[in-house]
Amino acid sequence: MPATTANPFRLALYWLGIQAIWGALLGISLQSRSIELAGAAALIWYGRLATGGALVAAATQVAVGIWSDSRRKRNSRRMEFYVFGALAGAAAIAAFYDARTLLQLAGAFFALQLALNVASGPYQAIIPDFVERARVGRASSWMAALQSAGNAVGALAASFIAPARLLAATLGALLLATCAATTLHVRVLTLRAVAEPARIRITRPFVDLFISRALMYVGFYTLLGYLLFYVTSVFGASSLEAARRQTGILIVSFTLIGALGAAVAARPSDRLDKRLVATAGAAAFIVALGCFIAAHTLPGVVAATLLAGLGWGIFLVADWAIACRVLPQGAMAAAMGVWNLAIVVPQIIAPALTTAVLQRLGYANSSGGARVAFVLALGETLLGAAWLWRLSRSAIGE
Q1: How far apart are alpha carbons 344 and 320 in whole angstroms?
Q2: What is the model's pTM?
Q3: Which residues 6+ apart lie within 8 Å of 238 measured at CB?
């Protein structure tokens, strides 16, 4: 007999495997592989690869989300998308770390974006598919916590596992194992009834939530994308390997404290105005960016990292809980695919905008370029937090 109560931890476990790969690549490996293969042109090539991969992700999520919702209407649990993404993703991650030319690196990275986004759009509908509305905040906190934990695991792996093939095997095995754990749980759950027809409705609250989230993630990806370059300039790392380790430790600290922030925000996201919870998290993140800009010593950088992680974890829980209320229940995967463009599009905007500003100001090859990037991130995040308040209480079901 199908189970009637979903286990939020087991539902969220696949997110750990997916986010471990992004924690490894977007925080460390894409930058370091660009440096290895492009040399002095690494900043430019990093921007091109990040932009191209995000375009692949955007197209994939929307198309697969619509397809997934049509399958959901026929009582599919969307497991076929999870499994394909894990299998193809494990193969693509191996190709990424084995690439010997920039062309091979680009092909592997784009294939990885395709594979994981085939899974991600359908997977992000897992909470409304199986969790009752009264438990959405707690379920969202598990998604946010395991996202942070996955990013930490990926950053640790990329920082301390030197053999490329061993690193690829570790990440691929984690992806497959977490997919199996979530899929085995989902297959025995009862799907929640969907009253609405399976179609997307783009409402004003949907648009406002999208814009707010997109601005927040432009700031986040600017911080993440330029952190290795910031560490190199602040600490004067003696080698690329040393810079990777230092950056990895900061990302792990960020993501682990982010899991704590997610835990702290679980009950408030069910009981309080979710806009207040999201804004509190955003405010902490904004203050942390100011600390990064001002810091010149290790204690200052560590403090900024911990505060940023705490704020981001809180924001993620409230953001996810708001989305589960605002997005149309009968077209959740397609809507999540569109909503998730608010993560994907910033992966295009952040490096493109930052590169343009650095070139305009003459900081493209300067040690101060990363601080300029963080100034941009602060402004982007502040605007995103303010935009969230265009959503009314009634729009988010308060």
Answers
A1: 16
A2: 0.71
A3: none
Helices (H) and strands (E) in the chain, counts: 15, 0
Task: Give residue 124's identity as a one-letter amino acid code.
Answer: Q
- Residue 75 in this model has a pLDDT that exceeds 80: no
DSSP secondary structure letters along 213-253: HHHHHHHHHHHHHHHHHHHHHHH--SSHHHHHHHHHHHHHH
| Domains in the chain, CATH or no CATH each | 8-396 (1.20.1250.20)
CA angle 73, 74, 75 (to 5 degrees): 90
pLDDT digits (tens, 9 = 90+) for 213-272: 999 999 998 998 888 878 877 776 667 777 778 888 888 888 888 878 878 887 777 677
- C-alpha–C-alpha distance, residues 331 and 194, integer Å: 9
- Give me the half-sphere count of Cα atoms (radius 13 Å) on the Cβ side of residue 96: 33
Burial (0-12, 13-18, 19+ Cβ within 10 Å), 97: buried
Phi/psi of residue 3, each to 5°?
-75, 155
Q: Are 68 and 121 in contact (CB under 8 A)?
A: yes
**SS3 letters for 306-320?**
HHHHHHHHHHHHHHH
> Tokens 């997934």 belong to which residue?
68
